Amino acid sequence: MPRDNSIKSVLVIGSGPIVIGQACEFDYSGTQACRVLRSEGIRVILINSNPATIMTDPEFADATYIEPITPEVIEKILDKERPDAVLATLGGQTALNAAMALYERGSFEKFGTKLIGADIDAIKRGEDREVFKKIVATIGGESAKSKICHSMQDCLSAVVELKYPVVVRPSFTMGGLGSGIAYNESDLQQIAGAGLRHSPTTEVLLEESIIGWKEYELEVMRDHKDNVVIVCSIENIDPMGVHTGDSITVAPAMTLTDVEYQRLRDLSIAIIREVGVATGGCNIQFAVNPADGRIIVIEMNPRVSRSSALASKATGFPIAKIATKLAIGYTLDEIDNDITKSTPASFEPSLDYIVVKVPRFAFEKFPEADSRLTTTMKSVGEAMAIGRSFPEAMQKALRSLEKNGASFSWNDGNLSELMKKMTTPTEFRLQQVQQAMHLGASIEEVFQATKIDPWFLEQINLINLEAQELKNSGELTKEIIRSAKMMGFSDLQIANLRNVTESQIKQTRLSFNLHPVYKTVDTCAGEFAALTPYYYSAYDEESEVLPRTKEAVIILGSGPNRIGQGIEFDYSCVHASFALRKAGYETIMINCNPETVSTDYDTSDRLYFEPLTLEDVLEVIEAESKAGPILGVIAQLGGQTPLGLARGLMEAGVRILGTSPDAIDLAEERGAFGEILKQNNISAPKYGMANSYEEATKIASDIGYPVLVRPSYVLGGRGMEIVYDEESLQGFIEAATAVTPNHPVLIDKFLDDAIEIDVDALYDGSELYLAGVMEHIEEAGIHSGDSACVIPSISLTKELLVEIRQATEKIAKDVGVLGLINIQFAVSGSPKKLYVLEANPRASRTVPFVAKATGVQLAKAAALIATGVKIPQLRAEEILPKTGDGHANGVSVKEAVLPFNRFRRIDGTGIDTVLGPEMKSTGEVMGIASNFGLAFAKSQTAAFGPLPKSGAVFISLSERDKEPGWRAARDLHELGFKIYSTSGTNTFLAQKGVPSELVRKNSDTNSNQLSANDVITKGLVQLVINTPLGRGSRHDGFLIRTAAVSRSVSCITTIPGFKAAVAGISALQKDDFGIKSLQEWMK
Q: What is the spatial distance between Cα 664 and Cα 649, in angstroms, rounded to a whole number?
């Protein structure tokens, strides 16, 4: 049956901000959906709160609403747009939960629309754990023994039957939030208590422990004619007990016998039929007991899942795209396979290569957090690699992580210590296993310690044997190098084993003419020709790279997502590819992140799924230069990853398009950059560079405290700290690992009363286009990635804006920018004076936000400038405005979304939530309105911390903040809020005529008054204002802030944030959220 022609318009619900457990793989799925629907002539309406995504770009939908994903807002869109159908199965748990809420409110009937992709009954059957267990039983499957609990008492009773350890799983949360494994009663109180709070239905499931079992998942699709395909089987290398998102996974599954695989297959097909997912994809998870083969069905997601992006990239079978076509009426046999162009989608993929995915963590950002891996997902990104064997794919994936210590190495170590460490799952467990086996541990001993399947351990053993041969053989022959390369060894690893330099190994390899060839990802194991140029490397005989005649531009992607380098950089790379394809170039993308739109084989003309290391990238360039002409490489759009390769590429004779590596280094090198500022009469805070603690104390006392100290060459503010005295400075230097002349510590005067400003601009060598001036809402010293910011700025005078433009132009010119530059300024003192904090001559994290706020696609313009196009031409082609600089449509506020609720200390208490110069947010949202108050209020709702319209607020201000903060407190009182406060704040507010109820400090245990914590944990307040003194984690403030996070109450820690909240509340009381699509704002 061809498509359902009654569907003329569809509302697609996006997945909101990037949070741990729901990341940019849903941007990939949603973008696919929008593209498919538009290609079918359907009007696409999109709601998503995240400005950093590709899908919220106005070109992907007919009406793009960057609004909070709440039932109230969606109802307004349904009322205004009247779509024929709503598609909610591609936006993760956020979209699914929104659809359920709309159904319960009767919105679908009220506005004459219907849900497509999965119906409400199917969603309930898949999501409701009790109903799902009954379904599993009716089809002859088995679930873990479990009990549903709604209170702590229920949990304690359930354990009597289930016995410890038990797994706690809250209902309707994503990425395992609030889940864990309880080994005793105190664990249960802690984990189940948190789980009941995190679950929107105050419900947790306790189930018998299957820790140590093997975990598998199958990606399944079904159409309304009951055709079912298994797209891919995926196996976790870590046994049960580690969340799938945090485990190293491999596709296809490696350790299933044919009989076991057939059993999982049969169960999956029976489950998808019984649950009733009739038009789309779902993901079903299984546990298998390695001792007796007993199979347990863990759960299913009746939607496109996190693993769908991985399975799509692994097989070339685009699950989201096909799910969208099924949702509008097609059947699997009516859809062509993109790779072969000759087989239908009902023809199951079959792989003749191995795919390995490795998670990327960010524990270094949360040093106080428990670093054990559990059933609560904690990874912030992932890398994937494709190889002809498991060792090859795994070693390529490990080096794709770009993290010290991730790749295997062969050093001496303490075996008994390693054996003890590996019993606990952490991000480095695989490396501990490999090291221990290198030092003599047997497969059986390691299996007993970790329960990792002996087959995988044998593979690691083979890698170690290969390393041994590399180390011990007299000379390196062509055969030995080839054999090592087929096991995934890099030149650098071989060099370390041989005690020589990487370039010596490279010379030896090239003297043997040993290069990888590139194979095409084919979904049919070579049975049908693969026509899509989607490549991976192998040390094999025959290359499959097609010749071409068009001049090519190679774009280096941004690698695995991490805090400080997220989806915003993928956005810029994708835009470059679109713009350059349109300009007539052949575009070639190199990236290793399976979650992104850039690694969709539809985005660029050619895609290489390869690690972003100098060796791997140079080999791709070598292969492509034989295929046809290359104009050059773009390395400034993917963040620090490709920037780090730019100089090495240039030295190898590769042409870098756009801003040169010399210009990039010039902006990083303090002395040279300081000289540019001096020549142009631009001020910067006083600074110095220290190579030792003695130098640091001298510089700091000369400059005057407070100072900002940081290591050189970092991204996302890694390791930065504001230091208020010499004692703290000593602590910082002791904690900062090697401070050496090659890695000095930078010390800047910290302007603590400043307003910080972010500027994005384009420069073509002679003309500047100032794209946007964003003002930070948080106070100075909070990393720009974590600060809420507003465009247009709300407190800068016209004169200051002119001065900012002139300074930006002078810096761009003298640094030698060709493309994008981001400069951070501070405005401080009275009269206001402009200072430059830093300049980054590359695409910044704020590019997508500025693009959405002003309606100008900056990354497209930057890519064209890199190829020699000038700004007047971009204006003529309407890529930039005909005249003038960037102009904000309405008022847009960007707010950061922080992952504090994912991390706990070992004792179960939360980690501190004070923001500082080191970035900690995983994602962002945007609010757009005609005034600042409403835009700010929208951003808070979208960031899961909606401002209350009425109720009570708890306020505790530090000494420094009482004077600037009391008027905001008075305004809240006048808006009808009850105020609770601690003694110092209470007395000060009373002197100013602002009434508040006194609560005791947490540290004052002599009084039996309610404590600051009590008013928060008992739900008496809807907003918490707690400003810490000088950013230290003082104990009272720490307890207040962690209590607020655990109760999901908004907690504001700065005076500018407090004032913005008051403006937001005031606007909310007067006015409801209005909605307007980006396309309407841009008119």
A: 14
Are 628 and 621 in contact by the 8 Å Cβ rule? The answer is no
- What DSSP character marks residue 655? P
Query: Pairing relation of β-strands 586-591 and 606-609?
Result: parallel
d(C-alpha 709, C-alpha 747), whole Å: 5
- Chain centroid, CA 775 distance in Å: 24
Contact between 389 and 354 under an 8 Å Cβ cutoff? The reply is yes
> What's the pLDDT band for 140 if we cut at 50, 70, 90?
very high
Entry pTM: 0.94
Q: What is the DSSP string of 370-400?
A: -----SS----EEEEEEESSHHHHHHHHHHH
The helix/strand/coil state of 790 is strand
Q: Token digits for 683?
A: 């001020």
Token pair in block for residue 702:
């000369």
Supply 373's token pair.
């891996």
| In the predicted structure, residue 663 carries a pLDDT above the cut 90 | yes
Q: Give the confidence band of 736 by pLDDT, cuts at 50, 70, 90.
A: low
Q: Which residues pair with 520 in a beta bridge?
A: 535
| Residue of 965, 1007, 1001, 967 lying closest to 981 (CA atoms) | 1001
Contact yes or no for 74/38 (Cβ under 8 A): no
User: First-to-last CA distance in the chain?
Assistant: 40
Alpha-carbon distance of 751 to 234, in angstroms, equals 52
Instruction: Count Cβ atoms below 10 Å from residue 411 Cβ, excluding itself.
Output: 8
| 724 token code pair | 């208020």
Q: Please tell me the distance from the alpha carbon of residue 970 to that of residue 832, in angstroms, as a whole number.
A: 27
| Residue 206, CA atoms < 13 Å, CB-side half-sphere | 28
How far is residue 793's CA from residue 795's CA, in Å, rounded to a whole number? 6
**pLDDT digits 0-9 by tens, 372-400:** 998 889 999 999 999 999 999 999 999 99
Phi and psi torsions of 116, nearest 5°: -120, 160
pLDDT over 90, % of the chain: 71
pLDDT band at 195 (very low <50, low <70, confident <90, very high): confident
Q: Please, what is the angle between helix 454-472 and helix 390-400, to 10°?
A: 80
Cis peptide before 831 (omega within 30 of 0): yes
| Dist. CA 858–CA 820, nearest whole Å | 8
Q: What strands lie across the sheet with 586-591, from one edge to the other?
A: 517-520, 534-538, 606-609, 586-591, 552-556, 630-634, 656-657
Cα separations (Å) of 703 from 274, 708, 744, 753? Answer: 71, 11, 17, 16
